[in-house]
Amino acid sequence: MNIILLGPPGAGKGTQASRLVAERGMVQLSTGDILRAAVREGTEVGKMADEIMKAGKLFPDELMAQILGEYMDKLAPDAGIIFDGYPRTERQAELLDELMASRGRTLDHVIELEVDEDALVERITGRFTCAKCGEGYHDTFKQPKVGGVCDVCGGTEFKRRPDDNAETVRTRMAEYRAKTAPILPVYEARGLVKRVDGMADIAHVNDAIEAILDGR
Ligand code: AP5
Ligand code: MG
Description:
Blueprint (H helix, E strand, L loop, with lengths): L2 E4 L6 H12 L2 E4 H11 L2 H12 L5 H13 L7 E4 L5 H12 L7 E6 L2 H9 L1 E4 L5 E3 L19 E2 L6 H15 L3 H6 L3 E5 L4 H12 L3
Parallel strand pairs: 1-3, 1-4, 2-3, 4-8
Antiparallel strand pairs: 5-6, 5-7
Helix pairs in contact: 1-9, 2-3, 4-5, 6-7
This protein binds BIS(adenosine)-5'-pentaphosphate (AP5) and magnesium ion (MG).
């Protein structure tokens, strides 16, 4: 099964994807994570991505698809993919169709996380992750069980994303509204869109997604 998690910055795409990875053995392909890895490695792509991401703008469509295709090629053919943060433009949606078709894959669901944008700024600015394993946390909604110690790997260093400041978040939201939201009708016409209340707590959102995947 291959699915897209769609929703504005802070909607919970990454949070839900990592749950599905743990519970269903699916593979998460987050284009944001892929670009952040390139930034860390200091590659040419990374240098370009760093500037674009800090501004809250979108990385170019064709190059993004090429990079994503390389990641798809590393996966076992039967691995179910969760696309997290891709596609983000109508062109990327077309390119995804090509990436899927040429690999004999089909798209099963496009799950839209419906959220209240005002609440998202709080979610994003409170977010932090374990520097060692990447597990996500939040100042208010998801603190480590033991203060300062990662629940998953025991790491004690945490980090925050440079694009998680209020100003960049506003640009990221505007990009979502202008370029990403218009993809929904395309998938709707194909009968693929399922909506989930992304304002519910993390476990409830997870249950709602699991129900969709199980056809319940
Ligand atoms: P990307 O990394 O994809 O960021 P984003 O879309 O802005 O989304 P986020 O990762 O901020 O949010 P999320 O939905 O994953 O929420 P999360 O689960 O963390 O992209 C970053 C940048 O990379 C882009 O701006 C662009 O420049 C570039 N880029 C990436 N993909 C691209 C593409 N395809 N094309 C071009 N450019 C691209 O949750 C947020 C917080 O809320 C967490 O702390 C979490 O614990 C908490 N939380 C989650 N769910 C809940 C809940 N139900 N209740 C309470 N708290 C919750
Ligand atoms: Mg994310």
